[in-house]
UniProtKB/TrEMBL annotation:
The lineage of its organism: Bacteria, Pseudomonadati, Nitrospirota, Nitrospiria, Nitrospirales. GO terms for molecular function: (R)-citramalate synthase activity; 2-isopropylmalate synthase activity. It catalyses: pyruvate + acetyl-CoA + H2O = (3R)-citramalate + CoA + H(+). The keyword Lipoprotein does not apply. Residues 1-20 are annotated as: Disordered. This is Citramalate synthase. Residues 22-287 form the Pyruvate carboxyltransferase domain. The keyword Cell inner membrane does not apply. GO terms for biological process: isoleucine biosynthetic process; L-leucine biosynthetic process. Its EC number is 2.3.3.21.
Length: 544
């Protein structure tokens, strides 16, 4: 961990006016961990810090030393990690009113954390000074000045977070500016204007930034919360108005509605504002970092997350797919690869021939989008979707449908018939199911039976047992997920259902679908496609 140089290895000269570099300050491990349902273990925190370092983040706020044992331990452990770029910051508040700085527990803990950077927050809004801290405005100014001075005397790079700056500035601009001056007099290297309650509008942020720049020489930054869904917009507005440090969290996690999403902020800074940001060199790692931070929280990355979500460059509408095949800029605001994402074409009732042609190309199936085969396949797709099929999450079933339309297609197997019997007895507790099935492979048949803990499990076992005689690879296919959805418009337990199955083999995953009024039949259709697709992708040749 470096402690005497700036983010690019040069002596620290944060945000000097001639320097158009914008410094990115990540608070995923501090403000991010104040998010409901987020809890990082110590190991998680270290791994996230390493990941942020590789992304080229300039500052990583690791936590509040003294708030809990984990954060104290984090600052000890992170000293043993050799980060290549990021500077670690310890976060806390100005001293308590009435305390001497040298005896204040919060300030002492910040020094003891032995980080190159320290960040403290102080009050800018008279409401907080009077109603929350219950002290005079003058006492608040002293707290800010003395706390900053104390930490600077200790040799730290000092970031001063002006908490609730925009609310304070709206209500009493003179006092809000006085608090910033106190931090400047105390020697803060950075003054960060915080939209703590997330209620500010971009035009308010712009006006405040411009006014602050008239009276404050210290480099400015922005720390925006997302309560009005404007945290990213407010951050970019602040940069355009002169802020040279931007705070945020990966995927926008944070207190209440979260913080500015750094994933979007970085992408916008680099790709839209053409700002110099160190992370620009690693931009194509954005999707990987976003996924990683959620993965360790056991949370899926939202599909529609801008830039990095799975749907960010997924095209469903026929008109869109038709256009992007000619020029992808028609419906893509950036190249998905720039942020580590990829273009996807979806299949649904909203598809046109262009979707099919693109999918056929992906599958390696010859199909001319103007051919009668394409028209017929499109109408089959729409009819099936109308019946309740949904191929978006079950593309393997659609690929098989397309393949089976070819006159050369040889089926792997057919199911002649099946029976399922279930027994549920009070005395044995768990129920037992038995399935029998006869499969046909070419001119040979195999008739087997198997048990299972439920009817679908028994059927799956019986099908694999029968097919095992012909295709050894069937047992390599694993079922990962099984979902049943009752389709709207039908009647109670007689409703039509859709079964979606997710399967895997080696590192490949695929989804298949079956629809029927009978949940067992729907399951068998999805199971059958799952196995056929697995055999196809493993290179197994059908025994015709
Ligand atoms: C805008 C933000 O996100 S700021 C960061 C907020 N993050 C957190 O609060 C997470 C970590 N916090 C904690 O673990 C605890 O709240 C601690 C350890 C910091 C403090 O715990 P406690 O001493 O039990 O106090 P408690 O949480 O009830 O109250 C907060 C205290 O901070 C004081 N305080 C709040 N802001 C400031 C400030 N800028 N400067 C000095 N003191 C402050 C309050 O006056 C109150 O102290 P008091 O009870 O002596 O009046
Ligand atoms: C400092 C901080 O987290 C805030 O004002 O939101």
């Amino acid at each position: 961990m470096k402690d005497d140089t700036g983010p690019r290895g040069a002596p620290v000269s944060p945000g000097s006016p001639e320097n158009s570099q914008v410094f990115v300050y990540d608070t995923t491990l501090r403000d991010g961990s104040q998010s409901e349902d987020v809890q990082f273990t110590l190991e998680d925190k270290i791994r996230v810090a390493e990941c942020l370092d590789q992304l080229g983040i300039d500052y990583i706020e690791g936590g509040w030393p003294g708030a809990n044992p984990k954060d104290i331990e984090f600052f000890r452990r992170i000293r043993e990690v050799s980060l290549t770029h990021s500077r670690i910051s310890a976060f806390g508040s100005t001293r308590k009113s009435g305390n001497r700085t040298s005896e204040d527990a919060v300030l002492r803990a910040l020094i003891d954390a032995r980080t190159p950077v320290v960040t403290i927050f102080g009050k800018s809004w008279s409401l907080h000074v009077e109603d929350i801290l219950g002290i005079s405005r003058r006492a608040n100014l002293e707290m800010i000045r003395e706390s900053c001075d104390f930490l600077k005397q200790a040799g730290r790079e000092l970031v001063y977070d002006a908490e609730h700056f925009f609310d304070g500035f709206r209500e009493n601009p003179d006092f809000a500016l006085e608090t910033l001056r106190a931090a400047e007099e105390g020697g803060a290297d950075w003054i960060i204007l915080c939209d703590t309650n997330g209620g500010s509008m971009p035009w308010e942020v712009e006006r405040a930034l411009r006014e602050v720049r008239h009276s404050i020489r210290t480099p400015l930054g922005i720390h925006a919360h997302n309560d009005s869904e404007l945290a990213v917009a407010n951050s970019l507005t602040a940069v355009r108005a002169g802020a040279t440090q931007v705070h945020g969290t990966i995927n926008g996690i944070g207190e209440r509605c979260g913080n500015a999403n750094l994933v979007s902020v970085i992408a916008d800074l680099v790709l839209k504002l053409e700002t110099s940001v160190t992370s620009a060199r690693e931009l194509s790692r954005l999707r990987e970092v976003a996924s990683f931070v959620f993965e360790i929280q056991n949370r899926p990355l939202p599909k529609n997350q801008p830039f990095v979500g799975e749907s960010a460059f997924a095209h469903k509408a026929g008109v869109h797919v038709h256009a992007i095949r000619k020029n992808r800029r028609a419906y893509e605001h950036i190249l998905p690869e720039a942020v580590g994402n990829t273009q996807r074409i979806l299949l649904s009732e909203h598809s046109g021939r262009s979707n099919l042609a693109e999918k056929a190309r992906e599958y390696g199936i010859p199909l001319d989008s103007g051919s009668p085969e394409a028209v017929k396949m499109l109408s089959t797709l729409k009819e099936l979707e109308h019946e309740g099929y949904q191929f978006e999450g079950a593309e393997a079933s659609f690929e098989l449908l397309m393949r089976s339309a070819s006159p050369e297609y040889v089926p792997y197997f057919e199911i002649d018939f099946f029976h399922v019997r279930m027994e549920q007895r009070k005395d044995i507790g768990e129920g037992l199911s038995e399935a029998t099935i006869r499969v046909r492979v070419g001119d040979r048949t195999e008739h087997t039976a198997a048990l299972g803990n439920g009817p679908v499990n028994a059927l799956d076992n019986a099908l694999r047992k029968a097919l095992g005689t012909f295709y050894a690879g069937v047992n390599e296919i694993t079922l990962l997920d099984y979902k049943v959805r009752v389709l709207a418009g039908a009647h109670g337990t007689a409703s039509r259902v859709r079964v979606l199955i997710e399967s895997s083999m080696d590192s490949r995953k695929w989804g298949t679908v079956g629809v029927s009024e009978n949940v067992i039949t729907a399951s068998l259709l999805a199971l059958k496609d799952s196995i056929v697709y697995g055999l196809l992708k493993s290179g197994t040749v059908p025994r015709g």
